[in-house]
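Good morning N.,

You mentioned wanting to compare the apo and holo forms, so I went ahead and generated the holo version with adenosine monophosphate. This is what I fed in:
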Amino acid sequence: MTDHEPRLRLHDTRTREKRDFEPLDPSCVRMYVCGPTVYGYAHIGNARPAVVFDVLFRLLEALYPRVIYARNITDIDDKILKVAKDEGVGIEVVSRRYAEAYREDMDALGVLPPTIEPWATEHVADMIGLVERLLESGHAYRADGHVMFSVESFDRYGELSGRTTEELLAGARVEVAEYKKNPADFVLWKPSTPDQAGWDSPFGRGRPGWHLECSSMIEKHLGTTIDIHGGGTDLVFPHHENENAQSRCVHGGAAFVRYWLHNGFLSIDHQKMSKSLGNILTVRDLRERIPPEAIRFILLRTHYRAPLEWNDEVVEDGIRSLERLYGALRDLEGIEASHNTPRSTVVEALEDDLNTPRAISELYQIAKETHQTGADLPRLKGELLASAKLLGLLSEPAETFFQQRSSGGVDAERIEALIAERAQARRNKDWSRADQIRDELDAMGVLLEDKDGTTRWRIQR
Ligand code: AMP
Ligand code: ZN
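and this is what came out, ligand included:
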C-alpha cells in the first residue's frame, strides 16, 4: 500500500459512465471475476480478462489496506461433460487437467494467484440452498425436472445490459423450451441422465446452471454486496444479467455489484477466434514462440475496454517495444535502486479507469530520463521497476530476458518434461492425452522420433 490518497475512477457497465470508486468498506475491497471453464487450454482471448483484472488487483492492493479477489474455476459445465464423455473419463479428470494448465499459463503471464479460487463442484450444497431460497421466495418454479428463474418476478431484469426482455431475447439465442413460463426464464437446476455427472438434490439428481454457480460462490466468499465484478464483454448478457437477478432476489433486492467492469474482445486478423476458422491461439502455444511477458505487454498496450486486434505485426512490434524497455533496464545494470515507489503519473494513469497504454508510455518516459545528463539513476531505476511492477512488467532481470531471446525461446527442460509425460500417458493407455501432448510439441515446432522404445526430439525450422 502506498501513502497516496486513492482517486480511482472506473467505468461501470451498468451506468455506462466513469464513476469515482467508493468501496462499500474502504478497509477491504471485494472483487470477483468469472474464471475459466476448464474443458480446454486457455486461448489468448481468455488471457485478456485474467491479465487486465490482475492489473486492477495490483492497483487496488497498492491503494487499499486489504483486497479480497476471488476468481472461480467453472468445473461444472456441459462442455466439460462432453469432453469427459468423449474421452471416457470423469469430469474431474478433465477439469483438473485444464485448471492446472490454466494456472501454469497464467503464472507464465505474470498473473498473480487470486486471493480465493473457488471451484463450482465444491459449492453444490450452497447452490442447492440458493435454489431453495429462490423457490421459497417465489422467484423460481419447477417445471419438467428443471428449476427455472422467473424473470417476471424481478422488475429490474435487464438493468445491467440496459435492454428490455424483448430486446434481450431478440439479441441472444435463448432456448425457448415449452416448460418456460416466459421465454427469457433461465435454468437454475437441470436434470442429469444417469450417465451424466450429477448431484442429488430436493429437485432430483442434476446439476446447477452456470449463472447460479457464480452467484453462489460470490455470496459464500464475498457476501451480499461486492465492489467489483469483472469479465469479458460477452458475459454482460445473459451471464451477468442473470447472476444479478438471482443474487438481488435472494437478498431481498439488496445491491449486488457496485461496479461492473467488462473487457473488450480480442480478435485475430480482424476475425473472431473460432474452431471453424481454425484461428484459435492458445496461450500454451504462444508462450513457446514469444516471451510470455511480451504477451502480457501486448494485452496491456490497448485499453481494456477497447477491442484488441492480434496479428503478426502487433506481436512483432510488441516484442520490439518490450525489448526497448528491457534495454533501458540493462543499461542500468550495477546501479542500486534507491527508491521503491511507482511514479505518481503511472498510478494516476491506472487510476483513470485503468489506462494501461498511458501507464506504459510513462514507463518509456522514465526510461528516456535515464539517458539525460545528470540523471539521478538510482532513483529512476527504482521508479521504473516499481512502476512496471504495478503492471506486472519487467519481472525478470534484463540479462535473463535477453538470454532467453537469444536461445530462440527453446525450453529444453519443458520439452523433455512433456515427452516424459507423453510416455507415461501411453503406458496408462491414455491415448487422448498422449496425442494432445504430441500436438502441443508439434505446435512448438518439436519433431519427435520414436525408435526402439525411446523418443528423440529436434526442432523443425
Ligand atoms: P470462458 O472460459 O469461456 O468462460 O471464458 C473466460 C473469460 O474469457 C471470460 O471472461 C470471457 O469473457 C473471456 N473471453 C473469451 N473470449 C474472449 C476474447 N476473444 N476476447 C476477450 N475476452 C474473451
Ligand atoms: Zn460468472
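The longest strand covers residues 226-232.

Happy to go through it together on a call whenever suits you.

Best,
F.
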